[in-house]
Design brief:
Length: 390
Amino acid sequence: MHPHQYDCLLAAGAKHHTKSYQLEDLDEFLQQNTGWKFGHLSYELKNSIGKSKSAQTDAVGFPPMFFFTPQFFLQIKAGALVITAEDPEEICKEIFSQKIAADGGVSGVKLQTKLKKDQYLRKINELQKHIVRGDCYEINFCIEFFDEGVMIAPVDIFQKLTAISPNPFSALYKLDQSYLICASPERFLMKKGQRLVSQPMKGTIKRDLTNAKEDEKLKLHLHESAKDQSENVMVVDMVRNDLSKICIDASVKVDELFGVYTYPHVHQMISTISGELKNEIRFSEIIAASFPMGSMTGAPKHRVMELIDQYEESTRGIFSGSVGYINPDNDFDFNVVIRSIMYNASTKYLSCQVGSGITFYSDPEKEWEECMLKAEAIRQVLGAEGSLDV
């Protein structure tokens, strides 16, 4: 994995911002505003870049795209805190004079899904018919768990989630009354100088934390898994194709194929693809070529997104989109929004989405079990009452 340049970044307040349905508007915003920019790209941004149309509305309320220049900016690097603000000394005093208290957590959450098990199994069977017909090779199919009329404390939940599942691309993101509580392990795209790096993740196995030898065997099993390698290489080919549209000819290469990385509870298979960006390529062109990311769509990307719109019961919104930053040198780093809780504080609507990669060889029952396992982890963080309503 390529390391982060910073241990932690915190941006608050908006001196300037852009909220638009058109990706090209972001280029103008970036040209007009130097310094740091933070924001998100919703999965629904695909609607404006000619990659299928979602019919549903996002109940959590994030717009397709939002970026801002912060009024207050804190960065921690190598144990040093740097504060950028009109009066950084006053901000520093205020931070150190306050005690951080947990603000209550959650109460009364009971997750339910819009898709019952029998409906899910039928949809997977239908998707596998598309695969047999040659419409696609693999599709990432997601389902939503939700609750309504609930109150949660997002900061407290973020602390719990990252304590249980510390991941390198975690983020707590608030826009108006919409919250993203994210513990993502996956990088979408990073730019450093003229070099672009993408690190798609496909392939997961649960660790054995009680036996080091067995844990090492599981890691080896994942690395040698034909199914996981097949899914991973499909995504790698997609990323190579995406980057080749905006990178210098013959510069796109696979730096690492089927790398297995260890996290607190799972081993993950991650590949790394990079390329040298052509001169005079705008940010909008980079995103138009590569977004949404292949690990959350499937192959071929355009047809798979049409099937996602057709078969998924909920719009994805910011889920399987991206959150990140652009620095003063116009380098950037963006994550993949997975392993996340979305919440609207005004409507009290709570959502989490989970999914898995469906291929010809997928067992629908096992795919359902994988989704339930992923949802159970979120349920525990939320302290949800009762069993999953499925």
